[in-house]
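Example 9 (inverse folding). The structure is encoded as follows.
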C-alpha cells in the first residue's frame, strides 16, 4: 500500500468531507493554543529582531482547520510584537501536506483569510489610534512528505503540526529468514486486525515501533536543517500514556473498525483475507519513545512535553467529566459523530482494499458499535503536545 497515494482526507466540502467533519481536530488545535502562544513568546523574546519570519504548518489538510492554526500563529505574533516594542515582521507562511491533499480548497479560502487579517488590522487601528498587528503575510503551499526535506536550509523560525504525526510514512513490514537464511521483509502477520491489538504477534508491535523511530528521526533530521538555530516547533498528535501499545487509549478505535469489518466478512460482504492484509499506517507513540528519538537525533531539546486525555470527539477530559453518564440516545449520536470524523480520515485508505461500494455500510456498523461502546465506557485518546527548540 503506497501511503503517499492513499493517505489524504476526504476532499471537497460534501457530507463525508474532512472539511465538514473535523471538529475533533479543531478541538485539539484549541487545546494546543496555550503551548503555542507560550512557545512563540519564548521564540520572539530570545531572538533579536527578525525581519522575515518563516512559519510552516505540516499536515495542514483541507478545510477550516487548514487556516485555523495559521490564523492563531499570525494573531499571536502580531499581538506580541507591540508588547516587545518591535515592528511586526513580514510572515512567510507555508502550508504543507502530501501531494494528494485538496490544496485547491485552501487556495479558494485564502481571499477570506487575507480579508480577515486586513479587517483586524483596521479595527485595531480605529480602536487604539495606532497600528497594532498588520505586516505583510505571504501564504504558499508546499506539497510533499514531512518525513523528508521540504524547505531551504535555515529558512524557518517556527514549525507547527497538529493531528498529523501519528501517520507513518509506510505500513511497517515484518522480517523473517527464508530457507537460505536471508532476511526478507513480509506483510505483518496480524490476522483479523488492522492495527496493533491484544492478539497481534509481538513481531507486529516491534515492526510498528521501529517504523515510528525511523520516521520520527527522519522528521527531526529534516526540520533540523530547515530551522534556524533557536527556532522552535510545537507538535501535537495522538499517542499513549502507557508503555503498552495495546491499551484502549492507544488502539481501540482501530479495534472497533476491525470488528465492523469482521462482521461484514462473516456475512460474505467483504473478504476476510483483505482484513488480514490491511494494516493502518498509524502509530500512537509513548512519551518514552518520543524522547528516545529526540535524544538520538540530537538537534532538538524538549522545552515542554504534555500528555492529556481527550475524548473521542477531541474534547479535553477533566477529572469531573469521567463521571458523566450519558443516555443511550446521546451515546448513539456521539457514535455517529465519531464515525463521521473517522470516515473523513480513513475512507481513502480503506477504499482500495475493500471497495468504495461498502463504505456506507461499514461506517453505519462502525457508528453503531462506537455508540454502544460509548454508552458503557468513556474511552479516550492520549494527546501529546511537545514543544522543541533547535539547538545552536
Ligand atoms: C487529520 S489531518 C490533520 C489536519 C490539520 N492539521 C488539522 O488539525 O485538522 C492529518 C493530515 O496529515 C497529513 N499527512 C500525513 N502524513 C503526512 C506526511 N508524511 N507528510 C505531509 N502530510 C502528511 C494527511 O494527509 C492529513 O491531511
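The amino acid assigned to each position is listed next.
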Amino acid at each position: 500500500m503506497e501511503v503517499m497515494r492513499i493517505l489524504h482526507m476526504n476532499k471537497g466540502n460534501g457530507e463525508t468531507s474532512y472539511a465538514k467533519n473535523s471538529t475533533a481536530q479543531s478541538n485539539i488545535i484549541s487545546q494546543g493554543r496555550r503551548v503555542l502562544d507560550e512557545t512563540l513568546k519564548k521564540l520572539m523574546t530570545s531572538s533579536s529582531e527578525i525581519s522575515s519570519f518563516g512559519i510552516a504548518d505540516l499536515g495542514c489538510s483541507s478545510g477550516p482547520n487548514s487556516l485555523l492554526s495559521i490564523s492563531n500563529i499570525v494573531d499571536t505574533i502580531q499581538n506580541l510584537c507591540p508588547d516587545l516594542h518591535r515592528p511586526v515582521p513580514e510572515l512567510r507562511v507555508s502550508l504543507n501536506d502530501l501531494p494528494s491533499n485538496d490544496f485547491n480548497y485552501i487556495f479558494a479560502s485564502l481571499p477570506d483569510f487575507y480579508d480577515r487579517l486586513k479587517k483586524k488590522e483596521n479595527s485595531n487601528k480605529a480602536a487604539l489610534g495606532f497600528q497594532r498587528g498588520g505586516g505583510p503575510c505571504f501564504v504558499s503551499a508546499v506539497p510533499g512528505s514531512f518525513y523528508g526535506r521540504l524547505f531551504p536550509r535555515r529558512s524557518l523560525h517556527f514549525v507547527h503540526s497538529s493531528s498529523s504525526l501519528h501517520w507513518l510514512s509506510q505500513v511497517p513490514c515484518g522480517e523473517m529468514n527464508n530457507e537460505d537464511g536471508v532476511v526478507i521483509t513480509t506483510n505483518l502477520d496480524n490476522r483479523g486486525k488492522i492495527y496493533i491489538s491484544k492478539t497481534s504477534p509481538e513481531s507486529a508491535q516491534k515492526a510498528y515501533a521501529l517504523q515510528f523511530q525511523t520516521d520520527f528521526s527522519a522528521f527531526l533530521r529534516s526540520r533540523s536543517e530547515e530551522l534556524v538555530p533557536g527556532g522552535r516547533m510545537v507538535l501535537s498528535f495522538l499517542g499513549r500514556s502507557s508503555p503498552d501499545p495495546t491499551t484502549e487509549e492507544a488502539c481501540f478505535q482501530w479495534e472497533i473498525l476491525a470488528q465492523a469489518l469482521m462482521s461484514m466478512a462473516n456475512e460474505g460482504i467483504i473478504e476476510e483475507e483483505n482484513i488480514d492484509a490491511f494494516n493502518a499506517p498509524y502509530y500512537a507513540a509513548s512519551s518514552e519513545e518520543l524522547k528516545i528519538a529526540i535524544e538520538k537525533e540530537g538537534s532538538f531539546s524538549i522545552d515542554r512535553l504534555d500528555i492529556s486525555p481527550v475524548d473521542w470527539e477531541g474534547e479535553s477530559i477533566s477529572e469531573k467529566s469521567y463521571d458523566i453518564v450519558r443516555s443511550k440516545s446521546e451515546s448513539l449520536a456521539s457514535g455517529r459523530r465519531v464515525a463521521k470524523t473517522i470516515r473523513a480520515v480513513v475512507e481513502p485508505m480503506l477504499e482500495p482494499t475493500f471497495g468504495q461500494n461498502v463504505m456506507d455500510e461499514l461506517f453505519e456498523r462502525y457508528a453503531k458499535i462506537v455508540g454502544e461502546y460509548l454508552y458503557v465506557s468513556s474511552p479516550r485518546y492520549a494527546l501529546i503536545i511537545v514543544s522543541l527548540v533547535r539547538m545552536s
